[in-house]
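C-alpha coordinates incoming
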Protein backbone atom coordinates (compact mmCIF):
# COMPACT_ATOMS: atom_id res chain seq x y z
CA UNK A 1 0.00 0.00 0.00
CA UNK A 2 1.11 3.54 -0.68
CA UNK A 3 -0.22 7.01 -1.30
CA UNK A 4 0.70 9.73 -3.75
CA UNK A 5 -0.32 13.37 -4.28
CA UNK A 6 -1.74 14.70 -7.54
CA UNK A 7 -1.88 18.40 -8.36
CA UNK A 8 -5.11 19.69 -9.84
CA UNK A 9 -4.06 21.95 -12.70
CA UNK A 10 -6.07 23.80 -15.34
CA UNK A 11 -4.71 25.47 -18.44
CA UNK A 12 -4.62 29.27 -18.29
CA UNK A 13 -4.87 29.53 -22.09
CA UNK A 14 -6.24 27.17 -24.70
CA UNK A 15 -3.57 25.20 -26.53
CA UNK A 16 -2.95 25.80 -30.22
CA UNK A 17 -3.89 22.60 -32.04
CA UNK A 18 -1.45 20.52 -33.96
CA UNK A 19 -1.46 21.23 -37.68
CA UNK A 20 0.30 20.00 -40.75
CA UNK A 21 4.01 20.38 -40.06
CA UNK A 22 3.35 22.01 -36.66
CA UNK A 23 3.31 20.47 -33.19
CA UNK A 24 0.66 21.25 -30.61
CA UNK A 25 1.61 24.36 -28.64
CA UNK A 26 0.79 24.89 -25.00
CA UNK A 27 1.50 27.82 -22.74
CA UNK A 28 3.68 27.13 -19.72
CA UNK A 29 1.33 29.05 -17.41
CA UNK A 30 -1.38 27.15 -15.56
CA UNK A 31 -3.94 27.59 -12.81
CA UNK A 32 -3.43 25.48 -9.71
CA UNK A 33 -6.61 24.13 -8.08
CA UNK A 34 -5.02 22.38 -5.11
CA UNK A 35 -4.17 18.75 -4.56
CA UNK A 36 -5.79 15.37 -4.10
CA UNK A 37 -4.36 12.23 -2.57
CA UNK A 38 -4.42 8.81 -4.17
CA UNK A 39 -4.26 5.65 -2.06
CA UNK A 40 -3.20 2.42 -3.75
CA UNK A 41 -3.15 -1.14 -2.51
CA UNK A 42 -2.26 -3.97 -4.83
CA UNK A 43 -2.00 -7.71 -4.78
CA UNK A 44 0.84 -8.27 -7.24
CA UNK A 45 0.48 -12.02 -7.75
CA UNK A 46 -3.26 -11.80 -8.53
CA UNK A 47 -2.96 -8.65 -10.61
CA UNK A 48 -5.56 -6.78 -8.55
CA UNK A 49 -5.44 -3.31 -7.12
CA UNK A 50 -7.65 -1.00 -5.07
CA UNK A 51 -7.31 2.73 -5.70
CA UNK A 52 -9.08 5.57 -3.92
CA UNK A 53 -8.86 9.33 -4.48
CA UNK A 54 -9.36 11.52 -1.40
CA UNK A 55 -9.38 15.25 -0.88
CA UNK A 56 -6.75 15.02 1.85
CA UNK A 57 -3.98 12.75 3.10
CA UNK A 58 -4.94 12.58 6.73
CA UNK A 59 -4.60 9.73 9.21
CA UNK A 60 -8.36 9.25 9.10
CA UNK A 61 -8.34 8.89 5.30
CA UNK A 62 -5.65 6.24 5.58
CA UNK A 63 -7.58 4.44 8.34
CA UNK A 64 -10.75 4.35 6.23
CA UNK A 65 -8.76 2.99 3.27
CA UNK A 66 -7.26 0.22 5.43
CA UNK A 67 -10.78 -0.64 6.63
CA UNK A 68 -11.86 -0.92 2.97
CA UNK A 69 -9.00 -3.34 2.31
CA UNK A 70 -10.07 -5.49 5.28
CA UNK A 71 -13.83 -5.35 4.80
CA UNK A 72 -14.26 -5.10 1.02
CA UNK A 73 -11.23 -6.82 -0.51
CA UNK A 74 -10.58 -9.56 2.06
CA UNK A 75 -13.60 -9.89 4.39
CA UNK A 76 -12.96 -13.60 5.03
CA UNK A 77 -9.19 -13.36 5.51
CA UNK A 78 -7.83 -14.19 8.92
CA UNK A 79 -4.60 -12.25 8.30
CA UNK A 80 -3.62 -9.70 5.66
CA UNK A 81 0.04 -8.81 5.08
CA UNK A 82 0.34 -5.17 4.12
CA UNK A 83 3.71 -3.77 2.98
CA UNK A 84 4.15 0.00 3.22
CA UNK A 85 6.74 2.67 3.83
CA UNK A 86 7.62 4.22 7.19
CA UNK A 87 5.45 7.34 7.16
CA UNK A 88 4.38 9.07 10.38
CA UNK A 89 0.66 8.34 9.82
CA UNK A 90 1.28 4.60 9.45
CA UNK A 91 0.51 3.72 13.05
CA UNK A 92 -2.31 2.11 15.01
CA UNK A 93 -3.26 5.54 16.36
CA UNK A 94 -4.84 6.44 13.00
CA UNK A 95 -7.37 3.62 13.43
CA UNK A 96 -8.13 4.56 17.05
CA UNK A 97 -8.57 8.24 16.11
CA UNK A 98 -11.02 7.30 13.36
CA UNK A 99 -13.04 4.39 14.75
CA UNK A 100 -14.41 3.24 18.09
CA UNK A 101 -11.78 1.26 20.05
CA UNK A 102 -13.40 -2.13 19.44
CA UNK A 103 -13.60 -1.52 15.67
CA UNK A 104 -10.05 -0.13 15.54
CA UNK A 105 -8.71 -3.24 17.31
CA UNK A 106 -10.70 -5.55 15.00
CA UNK A 107 -9.15 -3.88 11.95
CA UNK A 108 -5.64 -3.74 13.44
CA UNK A 109 -5.73 -7.43 14.38
CA UNK A 110 -6.56 -8.46 10.78
CA UNK A 111 -3.25 -7.08 9.52
CA UNK A 112 0.40 -7.91 9.67
CA UNK A 113 2.13 -4.64 8.78
CA UNK A 114 5.53 -4.87 7.11
CA UNK A 115 7.39 -1.59 6.79
CA UNK A 116 10.02 -1.03 4.13
CA UNK A 117 13.36 0.25 5.41
CA UNK A 118 14.10 3.96 5.39
CA UNK A 119 15.05 4.95 1.82
CA UNK A 120 13.68 1.60 0.67
CA UNK A 121 10.19 2.56 -0.48
CA UNK A 122 11.15 1.16 -3.91
CA UNK A 123 10.60 -2.25 -2.28
CA UNK A 124 6.90 -1.39 -2.05
CA UNK A 125 5.26 -2.74 -5.22
CA UNK A 126 2.52 -0.12 -4.98
CA UNK A 127 5.22 2.32 -6.15
CA UNK A 128 5.43 0.33 -9.39
CA UNK A 129 1.66 0.58 -9.85
CA UNK A 130 1.76 4.34 -9.18
CA UNK A 131 4.35 4.66 -11.92
CA UNK A 132 2.04 2.82 -14.34
CA UNK A 133 -0.99 4.87 -13.21
CA UNK A 134 0.87 8.14 -13.72
CA UNK A 135 2.16 7.12 -17.16
CA UNK A 136 -1.10 5.67 -18.46
CA UNK A 137 -3.71 7.87 -16.83
CA UNK A 138 -2.51 10.96 -14.97
CA UNK A 139 0.25 12.20 -17.27
CA UNK A 140 -1.49 15.46 -18.14
CA UNK A 141 -3.11 18.45 -16.49
CA UNK A 142 -6.40 17.60 -14.78
CA UNK A 143 -8.31 20.45 -13.18
CA UNK A 144 -10.78 18.78 -10.79
CA UNK A 145 -11.08 15.90 -8.38
CA UNK A 146 -14.14 14.41 -10.11
CA UNK A 147 -12.17 13.90 -13.33
CA UNK A 148 -9.28 12.32 -11.42
CA UNK A 149 -11.72 9.93 -9.70
CA UNK A 150 -13.39 9.00 -13.00
CA UNK A 151 -10.05 8.45 -14.78
CA UNK A 152 -8.52 6.46 -11.90
CA UNK A 153 -11.62 4.25 -11.60
CA UNK A 154 -11.53 3.49 -15.33
CA UNK A 155 -7.80 2.71 -15.14
CA UNK A 156 -8.27 0.47 -12.08
CA UNK A 157 -11.12 -1.48 -13.71
CA UNK A 158 -9.13 -1.93 -16.92
CA UNK A 159 -5.98 -3.11 -15.10
CA UNK A 160 -7.94 -5.44 -12.80
CA UNK A 161 -9.90 -6.99 -15.67
CA UNK A 162 -6.71 -7.70 -17.58
CA UNK A 163 -5.06 -9.33 -14.53
CA UNK A 164 -1.93 -7.22 -14.92
CA UNK A 165 0.56 -8.75 -12.52
CA UNK A 166 3.88 -7.39 -11.33
CA UNK A 167 6.85 -9.45 -12.46
CA UNK A 168 8.93 -8.91 -9.32
CA UNK A 169 12.47 -10.14 -9.92
CA UNK A 170 14.18 -8.86 -6.79
CA UNK A 171 15.32 -11.94 -4.87
CA UNK A 172 16.41 -12.50 -1.29
CA UNK A 173 19.99 -12.91 -2.53
CA UNK A 174 19.72 -9.54 -4.33
CA UNK A 175 18.42 -7.93 -1.16
CA UNK A 176 21.36 -9.19 0.87
CA UNK A 177 23.70 -7.41 -1.55
CA UNK A 178 21.63 -4.26 -2.06
CA UNK A 179 20.67 -3.75 1.60
CA UNK A 180 23.96 -4.85 3.16
CA UNK A 181 24.92 -1.35 4.29
CA UNK A 182 21.47 -0.84 5.86
CA UNK A 183 21.52 -4.17 7.67
CA UNK A 184 25.14 -5.00 8.48
CA UNK A 185 25.95 -8.51 9.57
CA UNK A 186 27.55 -9.05 12.96
CA UNK A 187 28.90 -12.42 11.82
CA UNK A 188 31.17 -13.08 8.88
Amino acid sequence: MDESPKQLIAESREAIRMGKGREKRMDYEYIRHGMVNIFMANEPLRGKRLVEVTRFKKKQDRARFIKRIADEQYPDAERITLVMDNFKTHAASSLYETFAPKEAKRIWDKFEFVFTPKHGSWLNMAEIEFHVLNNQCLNRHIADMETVIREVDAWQNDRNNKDRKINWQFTTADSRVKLKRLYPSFYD
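note: The two ends are 35 Å apart (CA to CA).
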